[in-house]
User: Fold these one by one.
Assistant:
Number 1:
Amino acid sequence: MADLARLRQAAKVVEVGSGQKVVQIPLDVWEEEIGLPNYTITPQEQHRALKALLDEWENQPDDTPPGWWDEFRQFLHDNRFEIPERDLGFKDE
């Protein structure tokens, strides 16, 4: 299971060129906490894993204002994405 405390500690809010603020997590931390050693994950498995992470993260006590998670989930729904498989250079793919 992902270490949410480590993800939160590594995360920072940055402003992108359009002026929109986004949460940025360093790639090495993301891959260590979220990345799976078997890169044959299906889109459905990826969806379930990310949903489980969001559910766990949402249930961690913090000072998130009411409605924030609803807005965030709607944003994810409206801006769907996939994390593509890629060759990591281990010559085992």
Number 2:
Amino acid sequence: MLLFDYTTVLCPSTTVSRLQIGFGLSDWTLTNDARELIKSKLCRGTSKEDLLMCAGFTRENVFLLWHRWSVYTSGISLMFVFTVASVTWVAGWGTLGLAYLSKNKNNEAVS
């Protein structure tokens, strides 16, 4: 969930829609235009939401502020983490299920 909050921005118009961005306000993920906006203090704050608000808060303007490769890398990282978590969850429950099935009526291990 930390990676999800770090790499996405909640749209202000709806409470359901989120935009995929790069890796927050890390300097290596921002474009020169974004760095200039932050330095010029034209935005009211220094959060990623405020930075995107200065650019019009549309999906197309994400690539004006964050490098395209960082947006895609953050999205792929997010998918990878969720996939590994899901597979690990299923493997854990599968292991518990197999352990349960290997017991007999007296709750002793079957040899």
Number 3:
Amino acid sequence: MKTLYLNYGITLAALGLLGYFLTHAKSALISGLLSGIVLVILALLIKKPFVAIIAKVINILLLAVFSWRSSLAITALLNQHPEKTVPAILLLSMAIVSLWVLFSSFRTKA
């Protein structure tokens, strides 16, 4: 479980940095990089049972946020806003990774 959330945090941080460098959006740094840092810290503390529960709750919340934000970006993209292509791809990637990690966390023993 530690490796799962460590990789999840690193992936979100990398996608956040990529989003910032591609679009210069500070929200990419906040959503990706900050979420990634929080998850890396949780991964380092995951041996305690309550931390695993906190990590799963944060995972669910991030899945909701990334799904919502990607749906907004995709809707804008479909409404003739091509500048939303990169944010839509990155946010959808974050949502997919979050969903995969959530399913994997229930299959993995702590």
Number 4:
Amino acid sequence: MRHRKAVPGRFRAVILGLALATLPTAAVATADIQHPVSVTVTALDPIQRGASVRFLVRATTRVGLGRTEVRLTNAGKATVAGANRVQLGRLERGKSKDATFRVVLPNSGERTLVQFKVVGEGPNGMLARGAAYNVLPDGPTEHLTQTNSGTLDAPARRIDQ
């Protein structure tokens, strides 16, 4: 049976320090990763119960997109009164294109979301980004803003009838 000699304390610390120095360190991400497509939705007409309302959907991209289209994916409790998809074609980097959709809002009821999706062929495959307009029974949302943390800020106002 072979006996090992004890390693003196000061050498143990050096050996442990060398072993710890060779361990991989945790990776720290410093990049601000953002989706390359941004979408905004604006009501072009006053929001009123039973009204026909046009929504302007603006798509902007940080990369070139081919075969881009905007789809009205869900009208909520509203009725689609026009096309539910609009072809935008090629969307160049840093440029915007618009599509307009029309829905008829219900005469009564609760909150409804009118939802849209922009889809295009990016440099590494298909890219898609959604957006929604929150139509409240007492008024629309205004100034829909997406923050860097991904939260949405959407103040609302009351409609006086």
